[in-house]
Amino acid sequence: MKILNVDQIRALDESTIKHEPIAPLNLMERASLGFVNWYVDHFPATTSTKIFCGLGNNGGDGLAIARLLMEREYPVEVYVVRYAPRESDDFMHNHRRLKLITEDIKYVEFSRDLPTLRHNEVVIDAILGSGLSRPAEGIVKATIETINRAPATVISVDIASGLYVDQANQPDDVIIEPDHTVSFQLPKLAFVLPKNGKYVGNWHLVDIQLHKRYIDLAPTPYYFTQPREARLLLHKRERYSNKGTFGHALLLAGSFGKMGAAVLSARACLRSGVGLLTVHVPQCGYPILQSSVPEAMCQPDGHQTVLTGTSRISSTPPSEYSTVGIGPGIGKAPETLTMLRELLPTIKKPMVIDADALNLLSENRELYAQIPKHSILTPHPKEFERLTKPWKDDYEKLDLLRDFAKTHKLVVVLKGAYSAVATPDGEVHFNATGNPGLSTGGTGDVLTGVLTALLAQGYDPVEAAVLGVYAHGLAGDVVASQRGPIGMTASDVVDALRWE
Ligand SMILES: NC(=O)C1=CN([C@@H]2O[C@H](COP(=O)(O)OP(=O)(O)OC[C@H]3O[C@@H](n4cnc5c(N)ncnc54)[C@H](OP(=O)(O)O)[C@@H]3O)[C@@H](O)[C@H]2O)[C@H](O)CC1
Ligand SMILES: [K+]
């Protein structure tokens, strides 16, 4: 699913109006009805509902929503925040229509006009939408602050008032902090950026049949991967396949005290359909891996506690495996850096690079050029900052991410809420699955195992990253639904991996 920018959203409205064709007012009615259908599904008709409307089309939506809820006998109060002398045409039209069924529309010009908001009621925020062009001030600011202080449940229409669709807010901007955002048709970039969490709440999309052809043709680097889209990437298994069909992966993982990372990664790899797995570990890890992951072959390093290289031990060079995954628990010993230095130029196929392998790279940037093209890197934000440089906001981080992936021709999975998969072409695919329970030790090692397995099976690297991140997040969601996000462990996530 595409994520469009604010100009494209406006053009999409216009294109819908022109090509369907549909009158702007009727499009507003359709959007409002979409919101109301969602609302009716979530809140009973006894819900005391206060709707705050601005003077533009977001406010127009609010007035239409008020009318549609009143027709359904919800107890509704309407507050129009009068911040400017002029209203939009469709606001005025909906104002007239609402007046036909109620005399009781309240106007908020000063703070004293604001009502007291209680915990057992719902506030619908239709003050400002995608037309936001500057920070909220004066009575708009006071209204937002009052709503944010209130114990009521808050639902924003289209987007929280005060939040920009696709540009950074300033730290002191006053923005609605909703419990839910009900938006129209397509997600907005603001919804998937980690820092915006409290200005979005849970977000939902209602389909208002905007012009499909416009959406299909609109150029954008940003996509939101829906579960349906991710599942389509899954390769079907032939009945007469054998373990050779699914590749032989080499995983370089572990060091003294961090063998758990190797175990988790290996187990995740095996649970993700790899044909054969060899794990190269320091000698101290040999009995650990052999006994805890019997399905994997194990290759001990020449060194007791850290990884130093496979060349002296194995007759099969890393380049002959279907793919190589490196990083979980390897530490940053000088010998391990030497191993990485020697390894990279020999690998000609995309590989998976994670954790301390990324940290070693960031401390030795001349190695970037040696990373096989289209390899998958899986940094969390701190590791990504080490690989690049600090950023001032999520938008700058996104630019850095796209630049880095494009410049080095890599697939970069930036982990976090809505993990972002950046492609060598400069696209970014945001993932829908996952929850805060996944920010616990070892889940990153699990992801490395998953991705290594998918590359070994011959998945295209971008598809491997999109599918792997989705499946990993979904496993996390399954575990969280069973035992709650607080008690979940990375081992639980491995066990919950499912491929169907
Ligand atoms: N397809 C859809 O998504 C549909 C969306 N609809 C709804 O329309 C709004 C967007 O409506 P719009 O009228 O463009 O904009 P707003 O309602 O957000 O804002 C109204 C005007 O307010 C001015 N403005 C901007 N920032 C501020 C501020 N901080 N304080 C005060 N006023 C502000 C601005 O005018 P300027 O000329 O002064 O910049 C805005 O134009 C969208 O969010 C949906 O809710 C439709 O219903 C149809 C389908
Ligand atoms: K709003």
TrEMBL record:
Domain YjeF N-terminal, chain residue ranges per copy: 9-216
Keyword Nucleotide-binding found: yes
Residues noted as binding K(+) in the record, renumbered to the chain: 58, 125, 161
InterPro entries recorded: Carbohydrate_kinase_pred_CS, CARKD, Nnr, Ribokinase-like, YjeF_N_dom, YjeF_N_dom_sf
EC number of this enzyme: 4.2.1.136, 5.1.99.6
Cofactor needs: K(+); Mg(2+)
Ranges for domain YjeF C-terminal: 226-500
Binding site residues for (6S)-NADPHX: 57-61, 129-135, 158, 261, 329, 380, 445
The reaction(s) this protein catalyses: (6S)-NADHX + ADP = AMP + phosphate + NADH + H(+); (6S)-NADPHX + ADP = AMP + phosphate + NADPH + H(+); (6R)-NADHX = (6S)-NADHX; (6R)-NADPHX = (6S)-NADPHX
Keyword flag Secreted: no
Alphabetized UniProt keyword annotations: ATP-binding, Isomerase, Lyase, Metal-binding, Multifunctional enzyme, NAD, NADP, Nucleotide-binding, Potassium
Entry binding sites for AMP: 415-419, 444
Cofactor binding comment, as recorded: Binds 1 potassium ion per subunit.
GO MF terms, alphabetically ordered: ADP-dependent NAD(P)H-hydrate dehydratase activity; ATP binding; metal ion binding; NAD(P)HX epimerase activity
Self-association state and partner proteins as the record states: Homotetramer.
UniProt cross-references to NCBIfam families, sorted A to Z: yjeF_cterm, yjeF_nterm
Function: Catalyzes the dehydration of the S-form of NAD(P)HX at the expense of ADP, which is converted to AMP. Together with NAD(P)HX epimerase, which catalyzes the epimerization of the S- and R-forms, the enzyme allows the repair of both epimers of NAD(P)HX, a damaged form of NAD(P)H that is a result of enzymatic or heat-dependent hydration.
HAMAP family reported for this sequence: NADHX_dehydratase, NADHX_epimerase
Protein name from the UniProt record: Bifunctional NAD(P)H-hydrate repair enzyme
Organism: Spirosoma rhododendri
